[in-house]
Amino acid sequence: MSVERNTRAIEGSVVTDFQDRMSYGGYLELATLLSAQRPLSDPEHHDELLFIVQHQTTELWLKLVLHELGAACRLLREDQLAPALKCIARVKHIQKTLTEQWSVLATLTPAEYGQFRGVLGNASGFQSAQYRAVEFTLGNKNAGMLRVFESDPGAHALVTAALEAPSLYDEFLRLLARSGYPVPAALLDRDVTTAWTYSPELVPVFVDIYRDPRAHWAAYETCEELVDLEDNFQLWRFRHLKTVERIIGLKTGTGGSSGVPFLQRALDLTFFPELYAVRTEL
Description:
This protein is an all-alpha fold. It has helices spanning 24-27, 30-33, 48-77, 81-105, 110-114, 129-137, 153-164, 168-178, 185-188, 203-211, 217-248, 260-266, 273-281. The longest helix is centred in the last third of the chain and has 32 residues, at 217-248.
């Protein structure tokens, strides 16, 4: 069937009657999804929609990241490494998308943002329960953060569950131990509600793996996948920092933080420090 007059004919087999059929919009709940963008500026500022869509889209991706990381943790507990790595690979692609999204928000100039920033009140990305749950699932835990979510029972429950569960790194180390690697027992029995901190006694375990990748391929591949996760996360943090700096300079954040200096300190937070330390030992 050729195209004539720059118009593509609709094939006769294409379904057009959705009175009693599932439609695209129905399946995706688009009526609900697309009605959730409600700018508060009055008169409505053109660029507020960009700000809302950017952050809502991020939350949707974070929901999928949590879904995949949760599955990866479960699969590691079940010694199903290959499908766990598939989940991690998907997270890596999502991370790249999230990092690229900052370039869209960066088109917002200081003058444009200033015209509707006031309507945000104290709303801030710092209060994202899903972002915090992702950080906790990767091991960068901080029980003090729970105070931020006390007024929202659902968000508080989500972050608390992530705080109390073993992290992805905890599950990987437990899998290594079950596979015969000499992971120190103290690390296997640690308090998982605390942030992971650098453990030099773990580095020799990774040195042996990295010195003979072929003999330890599954463990070696997983280590490199985790390094990819951390690299991607740090790139996201850095892009966030530079976007904020570009738009508001050194102003304080809407949530009360110092803004750029606060975001700068996040770059010092780590998830898998031994997987970087091992490189010095090789």
